[in-house]
TrEMBL record:
PANTHER family: TRANSLATION INITIATION FACTOR 5A FAMILY MEMBER. Belongs to the eIF-5A family. This is Eukaryotic translation initiation factor 5A. The keyword Ribonucleoprotein does not apply. It comes from Oldenlandia corymbosa var. corymbosa. GO terms for molecular function: ribosome binding; RNA binding; translation elongation factor activity; translation initiation factor activity. Keywords: Hypusine, Initiation factor, Protein biosynthesis. Residues 86-155 form the Translation initiation factor 5A C-terminal domain. Residues 1-13 have a biased composition (Basic and acidic residues). One of its GO terms (biological process) is positive regulation of translational elongation. The keyword Protein biosynthesis applies. eIF-5A seems to be the only eukaryotic protein to have a hypusine residue which is a post-translational modification of a lysine by the addition of a butylamino group.
Amino acid sequence: MSSDGEHQFEPKADSGASKTFPSQAGLIRKGGYIVIKNRPCKVVEVSTSKTGKHGHAKCHFVAIDIFNGKKLEDIVPSSHNCDVPHVDRTDYQLIDISEDGFVSLLTDSGDTKDDLRLPTDEVLLKQIQDGFKEGKDLIVSVMTAMAEEQICGLKDIGSNK
C-alpha cells in the first residue's frame, strides 16, 4: 500500500484517549469534577436557577482547581454539555527525594518514575520529608488529570529499618 514517497503514520506518546468527556451540566453534582477555564476542578457547590423566559435553567458551579487549590466559578445552561476531566489516582512507593525537589517513585511494574516534584502543599510536603528522613516506607498518591500530575496524599506503611 505504501510507496517510498508516502508519509507513514507515526504514533505519538499520547495514548489518544481524550483528556475530558462531555456531560450534561444538570447531571454534575457536588463532589464531582468539571473543567472550568481549561482547569480540572472538583465541584464544591452547585445551585440551579429556575427556567427563565428564554427557556434554560442555569447551573452555577463553584469548584476548586484540583492542582493549585484556586476557586473557580462558572454558569452553564443545565441542558448544555460541560467538559468533565478524566481523573486518576495512582499509588507509588517513594524511593528517594533529590536535592532539587524531584521524587523517585517505584511503579507497579518495577520501573521508576522520576518526573514528579514534591507537592507545594506545606503540610503534605513536611509529612513526606519527615517520614522519608525517619526511614519510613511511604506510599504517595498521585492524582492525574488533563496531562498534569501531582502528589496529593501519603500513606505510611511502616519502617524499613
